[in-house]
Each structure stands twice: as structure tokens, then as C-alpha cells.
Amino acid sequence: MNPIVFHIASGQAFFTGCTLIILAALLSLSQSKLARRGMGLAFLLGVIAVVVSSTPLPWWLYGVLGIVTLIWLLVQFRKPKQRRLSYVVIVVWLAAVGWELPFHLLPRVDPVEDRSLTVIGDSVTAGLGDEQTRTWPVLLNHEHGVTVQDLSRVGATVSSARKQVAETRIKSPLVLLEIGGNDILGSATTAEFETGLEQLLAELAAPGRQLVMLELPLPPFYNRFGLIQRKLASRYEVKLVPKRVFLSVLAGGGATLDSIHLSQAGHQQMADEVWEIVGPAYQTE
User: Fold this and answer.
1) What is the DSSP letter of 7?
2) Where are the domains of the chain?
3) pTM for this one?
4) Please, which residues bridge with residue 240 across strands?
5) How far are the Cα atoms of 4, 14, 200, 231, 275 from residue 52, in angstroms, in the given order?
6) What residues does 211 pair with on adjacent strands?
7) Do the beta carbons of residue 228 and residue 191 sit within 8 Å?
8) What is the pLDDT of residues 215-260, one digit of tens each?
9) Class of the 116-282 domain?
10) Contact predicate 280/109, CB 8 Å
């Protein structure tokens, strides 16, 4: 995977953009012409990085960032010696970093007594039907002795997964979801995605059951899908896995067949990444 694409899709570009905007605010405190020119370049690159990252911050927070930054820019043109607003810009963008940072940390999965796992996914998990390929749920079973109920299907969406779950008895105390990519890449509207995902999570939610979901890598300007996923994850107490985890697998050498679907090496890498997250739940000794 192209490093720039990884930087954008993983959400790391958001932090780069925030850093550049904060740098621009710091440079605005200087009276040097060189610093003023650097301020403009840093600000422009920072805004571009934030926009293309599609980071799903709440709209009200984007509104605050936009209004404060716009006022600061207008003041810079009229009263370049005014410094107070530069400090305000630094504070609000640091606050945005603080808001987003927890979504980039690995979730903590609590211990479970039953050594089983249910996986709900699309073709990234199910594979493309090659009988010689051992998918990552199969590898988890073989390598770690976890009984895996694999409900992944090629072409699955949040709506089709909900129907499948409704017809299936799920006993596992831990459910991992790798779902939603086909909704984003397909023709699903955000309203359809929200309805389908909420119904799926409502169907899965049960006392004593933990839900873990891979956060969706988002193309530029697809913030709304991420906002929906985070909102519903919070509502149903779902633990989100940072999107950099899945993307780190795709970025591995020889990990994919077509940049999305996993090769055998990719399934092994995915199994290792997933085990790092869910493994502590089965360490009961």
C-alpha cells in the first residue's frame, strides 16, 4: 500500500494536519516575513490533511474549529500583531487531537470463561472461495484452540449480516465484527447504513457478551459513515479497533490479492493482529 494512502486512510493524516495548523499559529506569533510565509504553507497543508483524513469528529466540533480558525485568519489579515487568537487556535486544535486520540488506542477486552469467538465479516474474512486458503478465523482455531463460529460471507453488508445473525444461535461471549466495507464501497446511503448497523448491534447485544468491531477505513469525505459507526458503538458499548490495525495488514508485503482481499500471508497477519486484541480475553490462568 502506498504510504501516503496508508497515512490518509489510517487517520494519521488528521494528526499531521493538526500539527501543521498549530505550527501555523505559532509562526503567526513571529514578525519575520519568512515565518509569515511558512505560516501560510503550513496552514494550507494542514487543512488539506485534515479534510482528506475523513476523521469522524462530531460536526459541532468541526464547527468550533472552523469558526475559531476563520476568525483567526481574518484577524491575521487586518491586525497581524494580534496574538491572543493565535493561542486560542492552538488550544482548540490541541483539544481536537485530545478528542480523537483515544480512537487510535487498542481496546481492552475483558476475560471470558468460554473459549469461543463469533466472527461476523465479509470477503476480507471469508476469503474468495479458494479451498486451499486457510482464513484467519480458521487460523485462530488451529493456532490458539479457540472455537470460532465464522459467520463471514462474501459480499456481506450490515443488513445481510443482521438477517444472518437473526437466523443463527450465537453462544459466544465475544463477538468480533469486520463489516461495513461493502456498504461504503457499494450504493448504501448513510441512512441505510445506520439503520442496518443499529439493527445488527441490537441483535447481537446481550448481557455478558462483549462486542468488538473493526473501525472502517474511510475514503475522503466519507466522515458520516465513521460518525455513525462511532455513535452506535458508544450506544451499544462496542469496543472499536483502530482502523490502522486492518490497514497495517493490507500494507504488508504480499498480504493481499487485489489490494483488499487477503492472501494466505495476509490471513496469517490478520490472525496475529486479531489475537493481539482478543487473546487477553482467553488468558484465564
Assistant:
1) H
2) 3-104, 116-282
3) 0.91
4) 213
5) 11, 8, 29, 21, 31
6) 175
7) no
8) 999 988 999 999 999 999 999 999 999 999 999 998 888 889 888 8
9) alpha beta
10) yes
